């Protein structure tokens, strides 16, 4: 049987994690290619709406990378992100989506190794969880 | 010119929207003079067969309230869509799914378990009989409409031309909408016939809101004496005002705010908000635990968020079926 290849959306902060991912690339580190990277100005730029939208459209996992606490380019953005993710995970749990499908990590521009490690670990975790449960509107009506 | 033909129908709703039409008070007489009501099962004697006999697009405007939960509602929504030139989704349930939409936290089987089987302590049903679409009795066969697994908003099953929001819609909005229809002075199709502003935008308690909202605890309206003039969020009480459309009163504060209750979000989101719950998560997380935020570790944040009881149910109180995720899913067991 073909191995399940999860679709993972990665929202990475331009100042730290995106640069870290760049470093992982230039250092030729190996990690799974399941992540689709979206560069954002700050991890707090990622609205909960973006995350819900990605899940609703079939993303199996979402990875958010930001600067270490105290390192935010905009002073306090990452603190907001942290609180937002904690609250959003509770909403996801109530919606029947495993909160482990959403991961927030602090990865600095110098931590290419950490980025590669995190991507490997997260991809394997999502692979074990399997595809995101879908909701088929049409099927729902015909089944009554 | 002949009077425009108007129909009213209800799906999964409480009847409050019918009441909202009666709440036009003496103005209803003025409205009744201008229109010809051809179908209104709640108030007048019409049969479904009367609608089936009509020509396609014979009804000029059809107001449908209530969410779509059963086959009967689905069939009537489709029939009325076919017979009407314009379909207006009336009230929160047909606009957003409304309170019946909270059933989307569960599935059909668990709802039947709670309503008809042992899970309901006041019911004795040793044979575990649940409603079936067909049942044979000595006199013949009886039928019931099928019960869907998921509650839907009206626009998820038929095309909707306009929306009048609210649980229930403010009478002034209903009257304005009827006059707009009569004068053929309507905005683009698909519009919500209410202002595109957030409730906070028009709230008089805005003046009491501090420059920067910062909370370190959440209070529940049932457990505290709320200050009748101060912004609810500034008091730590969750108010859906920031992500809810204004318009529940023509002027001044929202209807709930006037009686010292926080907004619960029945008017749905303004146009730029795509998911009420998502936006509310972002909004709350940005004002909670801001002071000394660098001292908050995982445990402290968890404790802070523990104070929000039932976040999804609070944020999606009226809008679960139109939220991005629509309903709860079930993860495969591993």
Question: Hey, which two chains have the biggest interface?
Answer: A-B, 38 and 50 residues
Number of strands of chain A: 4
* Helix and strand composition category of chain B: alpha/beta
Largest sheet of chain A: 4 strands, parallel
Helix proportion range of chain B: 25-40%
Give the name of the CATH superfamily of the largest domain in chain B.
NADH:ubiquinone oxidoreductase-like, 20kDa subunit
- Kindly report the average pLDDT value of chain A: 93
Oligomer: heterodimer
The total of helices of chain B stands at 12
Principal-axes geometry of chain B comes out as globular
Strand order of the largest sheet of chain B: 2-1-3-5-9-10
* Rg measurement of chain B, Å: 22 Å
Number of domains of chain B: 3
Count of helical regions of chain A: 5
CATH class of chain A: Alpha Beta
Category from helices, strands and their pairing of chain A? alpha/beta
Low-confidence blocks of residues of chain A? none
Query: What is the straight-line distance between the termini of chain B?
Result: 67 Å
Can you tag this structure with a few keywords?
heterodimer, A: 144 residues, alpha/beta, Rossmann fold, four-stranded parallel β-sheet, 5 helices, 4 strands, 16% strand, B: 334 residues, globular
Quick recap:
The complex is a heterodimer of chains A (144) and B (334). With 144 residues, chain A is α/β, with parallel strands linked by helices. Chain A is 42% helix and 16% strand.
Characterise this structure.
The complex is a heterodimer of chains A (144) and B (334). By secondary structure, chain A is an alpha/beta fold. Chain A has a single domain, classed as Rossmann fold. Helices cover 42% and strands 16% of the residues of chain A. Chain A is built from 5 helices and 4 strands; from the N terminus they run E-H-E-H-E-H-E-H-H. In chain A, strands 2-1-3-4 form a 4-stranded parallel beta sheet, with helices on both faces. In chain A, helix 1 crosses helix 4. The longest helix of chain A has 18 residues. Chain A is globular and about 45 Å long. The model of chain A has no long low-confidence stretch (mean pLDDT 93). Chain B is α/β, with parallel strands linked by helices and 334 residues long. Chain B has 3 domains: 139 residues, NADH:ubiquinone oxidoreductase-like, 20kDa subunit (Rossmann fold, 3-Layer(aba) Sandwich), CATH 3.40.50; 42 residues, no CATH class; 117 residues, no CATH class. Helix content of chain B is 28%, strand content 14%. Chain B has 12 helices and 10 strands. Chain B has a 6-stranded parallel beta sheet with strand order 2-1-3-5-9-10, sandwiched between helices. In chain B, strands 4-8 form a two-stranded antiparallel sheet. Chain B is globular. Chain B starts with a strand and ends in a 19-residue tail after the last helix. The model of chain B has no long low-confidence stretch (mean pLDDT 92). The chains are: A alpha/beta (144), B alpha/beta (334). At the A-B interface, helix 2, helix 3 and helix 5 of A face strand 8, helix 10, helix 11 and helix 12 of B.
């Amino acid at each position: 049987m073909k191995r399940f290849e999860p679709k993972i959306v990665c929202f990475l902060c331009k100042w730290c994690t995106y640069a870290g991912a760049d470093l992982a690339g230039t250092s030729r580190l190996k990690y799974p290619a399941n992540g689709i990277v979206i560069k954002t100005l700050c991890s707090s730029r990622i609205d909960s709406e973006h995350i819900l939208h990605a899940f609703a459209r079939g993303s199996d996992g979402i990875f958010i990378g930001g600067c270490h606490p105290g390192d935010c380019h905009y002073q306090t953005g990452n603190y907001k992100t942290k609180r937002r993710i904690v609250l959003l995970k509770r909403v996801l749990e109530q919606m029947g989506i495993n909160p482990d499908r959403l991961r927030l990590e602090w990865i600095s521009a110098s931590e290419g190794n950490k980025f590669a490690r995190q991507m490997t670990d997260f991809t394997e975790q999502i692979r074990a969880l399997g595809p995101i449960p879908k909701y088929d509107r049409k099927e729902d009506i015909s089944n009554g | 010119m002949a009077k425009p033909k108007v129909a009213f129908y209800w799906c999964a709703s409480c009847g409050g929207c019918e009441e909202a039409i009666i709440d036009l008070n003496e103005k209803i007489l003025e409205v009744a003079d201008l229109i010809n009501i051809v179908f209104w099962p709640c108030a007048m004697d019409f049969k479904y067969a009367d609608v089936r006999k009509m020509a396609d697009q014979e009804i000029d405007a059809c107001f449908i309230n209530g969410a779509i939960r059963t086959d009967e509602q689905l069939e009537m929504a489709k029939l009325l869509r076919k017979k009407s030139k314009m379909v207006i989704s009336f009230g929160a349930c047909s606009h957003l799914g409304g309170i019946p939409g909270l059933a989307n936290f569960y599935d059909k089987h668990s709802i039947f378990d709670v309503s008809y089987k042992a899970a309901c302590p006041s019911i004795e049903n040793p044979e575990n009989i649940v409603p079936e679409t067909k049942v044979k009795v000595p006199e013949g066969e009886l039928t019931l409409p099928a019960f869907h697994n998921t509650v839907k908003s009206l626009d998820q099953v038929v095309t909707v031309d306009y929306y009048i929001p609210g649980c229930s819609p403010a009478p002034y909005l209903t009257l304005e909408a009827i006059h707009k229809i009569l004068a053929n002075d309507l905005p683009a199709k698909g519009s919500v016939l209410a202002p595109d502003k957030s409730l906070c935008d028009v709230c008089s308690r805005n003046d009491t809101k501090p420059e920067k909202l910062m909370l370190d605890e959440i209070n529940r309206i049932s457990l505290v004496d709320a200050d009748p003039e101060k912004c609810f969020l500034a008091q730590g009480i969750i108010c859906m005002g920031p992500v809810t459309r204004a318009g529940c009163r023509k002027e001044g504060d929202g209807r709930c705010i006037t009686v010292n209750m926080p907004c619960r979000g029945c008017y749905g989101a303004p146009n730029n908000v795509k998911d009420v719950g998502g936006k509310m998560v972002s909004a709350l997380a940005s004002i909670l635990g801001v002071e000394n935020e660098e001292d908050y570790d995982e445990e402290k944040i968890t404790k802070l968020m523990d104070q929000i009881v039932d976040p999804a149910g609070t944020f999606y109180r009226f809008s679960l079926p139109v939220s991005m995720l629509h309903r709860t899913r079930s993860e495969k067991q591993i």
